[in-house]
Design goal:
The longest helix has 21 residues. A hairpin with a 2-residue loop joins strand 42 and strand 43. The chain folds into four domains: 272 residues, no CATH class; 364 residues, Glycosyltransferase, CATH 1.50.10; 77 residues; 99 residues, Sandwich (Immunoglobulin-like). 55% of the residues are buried. The protein is an alpha+beta fold. It comes from Rarobacter faecitabidus. It is an enzyme of class 3 (hydrolase). This is glucan endo-1,3-beta-D-glucosidase. Its EC number is 3.2.1.39.
Length: 1072
């Protein structure tokens, strides 16, 4: 007998949550939900199958349509596997799911465009290049393994084994005999081999890795089980797994019976290897001497560099020839010896890590809003494969930008490694390290103090706005370039700057025209219909990416964004930034099309490791601290990036979009990217700490950074176009460009170096970019230069900027002074300027309600508070007066400015040594401590506490009357158990589960209110207490997205009018 259909009523918010957690088909086959506004009838669980005709088919069709309508209303973008090819709705917008043009890997030079599938080519079937079923990371240090090239060499055809991979301090490369390993510590001049840089000057430096056959050491496996010395000839190379900065790959023979597996990563001077099917085998290339070979530990000197090889546990190394050593099959390891270190001491001390490869490596980050800092934790996990040794720690080498801001107090070794980024200190026997980087805020635009109505420069600015008013996009440059993704982005970026400036000075006509053009362009690009192939985004599941068409004039792939996955962050950043501006003035548009903005962000910087459609932080190298532009990274020099400023444009755009839309996860990820990349750019592009090796490159600025070094070269222009060489790392100029001015002395030094290259001649064009940069150090000189070039008609604009914005920028900085890095705010869209020792405090209120922002110095002392009206840019001047610019009609949802936490962990609760001690996974910090739970009458900002401060989106609280003193009692925790499996006490991280909490109260008191589950300070979930069967029960559902920390689970009862708040230990734990 068929079961009856189950009908339930859900509110739309709950339905949206359900839809996010379950694929549509899962919803359909589970039960029927009646959602207010939607009716979705479906089959009940275990009901009998229907024939594919008649009323059942019509019912399923109706149900599927209703689910898709629900998803559109929720602005949820679902994995296309659940839907047929064609348009997919995301709110009022959408994208095409399916092929509408060329896609990644579709060049004859590549082996395949389907890296996760086997394929046939050259008459043979080749296994998938990537065996893990997940979106493929591109733009990484090891992406060459997912973009391998097709080789025809004599009579042999097949896929190559990838290019050189730089995981400093090592350089790696797969060879048929195994993994090539080299410590590239030899300084050389810049070269242009295999890169094809069109504007190569020969200036720069490299610590180049060797060719595929020239590595110092090859760690592999014997080619024959009965002949250990025989060289292996591997044919099948696959990527098996990866983490935030490591990769695991395996090379096997054609039969798959013999092979070698490798685990390697950034900052890990040990490579972990596993041989199977035959003996472990090491072969050296070049001058080799044996320093020691005892007790399974082999110490070699190869070409003047020292290496250690630990044989499989309990085995020894046998020397088969002058440069070949073999041992039994199993896990073994090879390490690089730091400069000047005693190799025997290192071998003894590091042996404990030889059989414990790093199997997890994750970054977690917290925006410490009150102190204006971003704390990041770089954590590893290991798996012991054999013998005795570490189960929790390893050896890590740190880049200079990491060591500069490291705050964990761990003492490094006295020895270091050489790298293209500078000296790398070494931490041994550590589970990770912590950095704390200052964040001085970003602005929608700097305040136009002197160009506002009544200001000395107002009339001149209005002339420039009048000139730009009817063409804010600079349409000709956009159409001349085929309306391609990049050039459309530049156009709407230009219009966004005009809109921001016009709003500040009250020119609503120019502002609204610019906003209209932005809205038209974004709406067009974010609208997908059947058959649309231009000005549209399409999703390709092969690599897991969103592609924009057209990508170049005449349908060309101008920058390799389609076939090579290049530059997505450069292009999409302009769209996100323009959308953030538009959203402050048009909340309805943002609600309708914001889902597509989120999709672009997910493509380039998804903050969710569990994202089924996109890889985690695609273009950002977590360990290197900056982005990479090349999608395939298939050069002998490794990956590269020239336009660091366009990468920063993405970060600042995410901060603004997250803030205006009330999305903490996006905002805080943007702050992580912004602070980290700013620190890396200062050192590796602008040489702020003199890391460049002067012996080969006696300059202080590099226009292009490679994994192996840095160049003064470009992918465009000519050798004499110095304005391009410098300007490419300065544009676009926005309120997010202030990081360039953190060190005015570096700005002046860089500008002087530019002038030295031109013989003190002013730039032929891009005056706007260079003068805006100069204004961060010397705004008066920049303004004078602007006036001269504008007056004699030589002033040349970059395509994404305008006279109006440039004039606004330099005149405003002339009034405000330089960025002041001795002060910080407790709000991300705020910063401090200083002129002649006098500070001005600036706040952009992105919300639709007034806020109060506090500025402090490094000691924590309050310097100023600024109350900013909704939607305006407010400046507190040195004399204490304030001026607010803009019409005040704009503003988005905003994110509340947190106050002092009111529900800390119970101080009587013993510390759990596995607890991270804080919110260590703020990639989704939307509810880190939940200080504003409306059910808690003691929480600040709650409805029953008139003395609270509602922060962003609210006005400062007013003092309330003191409540009458009430004597309360404490509820008792009866039990807290796994709701599905009560006897199971260990719950897996990254998995959803439910916990059933039972409470009791003394006397006749009733237990009402809310229960919350936490690990450390991270909130897993919360639920209302219900009275059931004489017991007080709360069943807390923990979502996968919230379950990201390991440690002991605690229960917090948030209190009621009769019972006090309390925190309880449980026997439940979240484990890996």
């Amino acid at each position: 007998m068929r079961e009856k259909w189950q009908l339930k009523w859900l509110d739309l918010e709950t339905a949206c949550t359900l839809a996010e957690e379950h694929p549509p088909i899962s919803i359909l086959t589970t039960m029927s939900y009646r959602i207010r506004g939607f009716t979705v009838p479906t089959m009940a669980p275990h009901s009998r199958p229907y024939h594919a005709h008649g009323s059942a088919t019509r019912l399923l069709t109706i149900a599927l349509g209703a689910v898709l309508a629900l998803l559109a209303s929720c602005s949820i973008a679902i994995a296309p596997a659940a839907l047929a090819a064609g348009p997919v709705s995301v709110g009022s917008g959408g994208y095409i799911n399916g092929k509408i043009g060329v896609e990644p890997g579709e060049l004859s030079e590549y082996c395949t465009s389907t890296p996760r599938q086997s394929f046939t080519r050259g008459g043979k079937t080749i296994p998938a290049l990537v065996s893990k079923n997940a979106p493929v990371p591109t733009n990484d240090w090891w992406s060459t393994l997912a973009f391998r090239h097709w080789v025809s060499d004599g009579g042999w055809q097949g896929c190559d084994l990838g290019s050189t991979m730089y995981a400093h301090p090592a350089a790696y490369g797969w060879h048929n005999r195994g993994l090539g390993i080299t410590y590239p510590n030899t300084l050389g001049a810049a070269t242009n081999n295999d890169t094809g840089i069109s504007n190569f000057t020969g200036e720069g430096y490299e610590y180049a890795g060797p060719t595929w056959s020239g590595h110092d050491v090859y760690a592999g496996v014997s080619g024959n089980a009965s002949n250990p010395s025989q060289e292996f000839v591997g044919e099948v190379l696959q990527v098996e797994d990866w983490t935030d900065w490591t990769v695991q790959s395996v090379l096997k023979n054609a039969a798959g019976t013999i092979g070698v597996r490798a685990v390697i990563g950034h900052g890990l001077p040990i490579a972990w290897m596993q041989s199977f099917g035959a003996a472990s085998r090491i072969q050296t290339q070049g001058t080799t001497s044996i320093q020691s070979n005892n007790n399974g530990t082999l110490i070699l000197s190869v070409n003047g560099r020292s290496y250690i090889a630990w044989a499989p546990d309990g085995a020894q190394w046998t020397q088969n020839s002058a440069n070949v050593f073999t041992s039994s099959a199993g896990w073994y390891a090879v390490a690089l010896v730091p400069n000047g270190a005693n190799a025997s001491t290192i071998a003894a001390n590091w042996r404990q890590f030889a059989y414990s490869p790093v199997t997890t490596a994750t970054v977690s980050y917290t925006y410490q809003q009150a102190s204006g800092k971003l704390q990041a934790r770089y954590e590893i996990g290991v798996t012991r494969k054999a013998g005795s040794g570490s189960t929790t720690s390893t050896v890590m080498a740190l880049y200079p930008h990491q060591e500069q801001y490291r705050t964990d107090g761990q003492a490094p070794l006295g020895s270091t490694y050489t790298s293209p980024r500078g000296s790398m200190p070494v931490l041994q026997n550590v589970p990770g390290f912590t950095t704390t980087t200052p964040f001085y805020g970003v602005l929608t635009e700097i305040p136009g103090i002197s160009v506002a109505p009544g200001g000395a420069n107002h009339a001149k600015l209005m002339q420039y706005l009048d000139a730009a008013e009817n063409d804010p996009l600079n349409v000709q440059q956009m159409t001349n370039n085929g309306n391609a993704t990049y050039w459309t982005g530049k156009a709407i970026g230009r219009a966004a700057r005009i809109a921001e400036v016009a709003d500040q000075v009250g020119d609503t006509t120019a502002r609204d025209k610019a906003l209209t053009k932005i809205r038209e362009q974004l709406t067009d690009w974010f609208t997908a219909t059947s058959g649309k192939t231009s000005k549209v985004f399409a999703y390709s599941e092969k690599y897991g990416t969103l592609l924009g068409y057209p990508a170049g004039p005449g349908g060309t792939d101008q920058y390799g964004t389609l076939t090579r996955m290049n530059d997505h962050h450069f292009h999409y950043a302009y769209y996100v930034a323009a959308a953030a501006t538009l959203a402050r003035y048009d909340a309805q548009w943002a609600a309708s099309y914001g889902g597509m903005v989120d999709m672009l962000i997910r493509d380039v910087a998804s903050p969710d490791r569990g994202d089924a459609m996109f890889p985690y932080l695609r273009t950002f190298d977590v360990y290197a601290g900056h982005s990479w532009a090349s999608g395939d990274g298939g050069f002998s020099k490794g990956n590269n990036q020239e336009s660091s400023a366009e990468a920063m444009n993405l970060a600042q755009a995410m901060v603004q979009w997250g803030e205006v839309r009330g999305n903490t996860q996006i905002r805080d990820t943007g702050i992580y990217l912004y602070t980290t990349e700013a620190a890396a750019i200062a050192r590796y592009w602008f040489n702020s700490r003199d890391d460049f090796p002067s012996a080969k490159f006696n300059r202080n600025y590099a226009s292009m950074v490679w994994a192996s070094g840095a160049h003064y070269s470009l992918w465009f222009g000519g050798p004499g176009d110095h304005q391009y060489f410098y300007g490419i790392n300065m544009l676009p100029v926005t309120g997010g460009s202030l990081y360039l001015g953190y060190e005015p002395a570096i700005v002046q030094r860089t500008y002087n170096e530019y002038m030295g290259r031109t013989g003190n001649a002013e730039p032929p064009w891009w005056h706007d970019i260079l003068y805006s940069y100069l204004a961060l150090a010397n705004p008066d000189l920049a303004l004078a230069k602007f006036a001269t070039a504008d007056g004699n008609g030589t002033f040349g604009e970059e395509q994404g900027d305008s006279h109006a914005h440039s004039y606004h920028w330099v005149t405003s900085l002339a009034a405000l002074g330089q960025v002041d890095t001795t002060a910080h705010a407790n709000y991300p869209l705020a910063t401090t300027f200083s002129k002649n020792g006098q500070r001005s405090y600036v706040v952009t209120n992105a919300s639709n309600k007034a806020i109060t922002v506090t500025f402090r110095d490094d000691s924590g002392s309050v310097l100023a508070t600024v109350t900013a009206p909704k939607g305006q840019v407010t400046t507190r001047r040195p004399d204490g007066s304030t001026v607010s610019l803009g019409d005040g009609g704009s503003g988005g949802a905003g994110i509340e400015i947190p106050g002092t936490p009111t529900d800390p962990t119970d101080p009587t609760d013993p510390t759990d040594p596995t607890d991270p001690g804080g919110p260590t996974d703020p990639t989704d910090p939307t509810d880190p401590t939940d200080p504003t739970d409306p059910t808690d009458p003691t929480d600040p900002g709650g409805p029953t506490n008139p003395g609270g401060n509602n922060g962003t989106g609210g006005t400062p609280g007013t003092p309330g009357s003191a409540p009458a003193k009430v004597i309360k009692r404490k509820a008792k925790l009866v039990s807290a158990k796994n709701a599905k499996k009560p006897k199971v006490k260990k719950l897996k991280v990254h998995k959803a589960f439910k916990v059933k909490v039972v409470l009791s109260a003394p006397g006749k008191a009733k237990v009402t209110g809310t229960v919350r589950l936490t690990v450390g300070k991270r909130v897993l979930g919360k639920a209302k207490v219900r009275h059931k069967g004489g017991r007080y029960v709360a069943t807390v559902s923990v979502k996968t997205a919230k379950n990201r920390n390991v440690g002991k689970i605690r229960v917090s009862y948030l209190g009621s009018t009769a019972l006090v708040k309390a925190t309880y230990n449980t026997k439940l734990r979240v484990v890996r």
